[in-house]
Amino acid sequence: MVVPVSPKFPLLRQEVTPLSASEEPVPACACVVDAASPRNVAWDVAELFIGYALILVAIWTPHPLQHWLYFVALGWFIVSITLSFESWKAMGCCVAGFWRSSWIVAVALTVAGVATWFAATLHTLHHPGAPVRWVLTFGGYAVWALFQQLLLQGYFLARALRFIPNANAAALLAASVFALAHLPNPVLTPLTLIWGLTACLLFIRSRNVYPLAIAHAVFGICVAITVPASILHNMRVGLGYFNYHPTPAQLSHSDHAVSTSEWVKAEAPTRR
Fold first, then answer.
1. Cis peptide before 184, with omega less than 30 degrees from 0?
2. What span, in angstroms and rounded, lies between the C-alpha atoms of 162 and 79?
């Protein structure tokens, strides 16, 4: 496009080139990574290492020390996120981008429906029963799913993107550490690797954590009610996987005589 010649400056002409698709302004919630200084990179790596080490120590430590380590890890993430907090949008807690990735919720519901049908056919389906039981059993897990996605995308992926120039490589790194935290569970480890990579790639495009958390909850509940407890070990990971002792009346995530809040406090470090 050529700007009209000014009558005061007849020889002045200015060429204005339209923005290409790649140069168009980026939406407010888009994944933008600024160049980090060496000092910032070192701190990002240290945050990832310390946070992940605390998670592993917590899930591989026996009770009652595990409870204390769980709160130590939680305290670290709160302090770390607070010190380097940019905005809720940067962590994916925003409206923009929600509908762009909301299709993953439909996919999760479809997969869950098919898996439930197969489980019913194979007589491996087990669920709480009444609607109130569903809420009491899986309400805490839905909150836990959101917390996991905030850690995966808002903490691990966000920091990996600062020092890894390739976004796909950063997503693979974040998904890998997410999956390794689910060892030695033979069902959850491969599933979380696939889901973690998918969720990270979607987050890079939409920068919204809410559809991912909903899909995570749907997938997790689906696995809990369709896979036999003898294989899944009640969705436990780390040392809890080996210490699992099933009860005849156990149908899903928790003993129904225990409230959801107490269940989450007691076993959140070993549940994914």
1. yes
2. 19
Render 169-200 in DSSP notation, one character per residue: HHHHHHHHHHHHTTTT-TTHHHHHHHHHHHHH
* Nearest one of 33, 56, 58, 36 to 45, comparing CA atoms: 36
- Amino acid letter, residue 216: H
CA distances, 131 to each of 71, 123, 249 (Å): 32, 21, 18
How distant, in Å, are the alpha carbons of 34, 43, 86 from that of 40? 11, 5, 14
Contact (CB, 8 A) for 271 and 237: yes
pLDDT digits (tens, 9 = 90+) for 19-65: 444 444 444 444 444 555 565 888 899 999 999 999 999 999 998 99
Chain centroid, CA 113 distance in Å: 22
pTM: 0.77
Residue partners of 249: CB distance under 8 A and separation at least 6: none
- CA pseudo-torsion sign 62, 176, 198, 147: positive
Q: What would the DSSP string read from start to end of 117-164?
A: HHHHHHT------SHHHHHHHHHHHHHHHHHHHIIIIIIIIHHHHHH-
Q: What is the distance between the alpha carbons of residues 152 and 174, in angstroms, rounded to a whole number?
A: 7
| Pair of tokens at residue 82 | 């607070």
How distant is the alpha carbon of residue 146 from its chain centre? 7
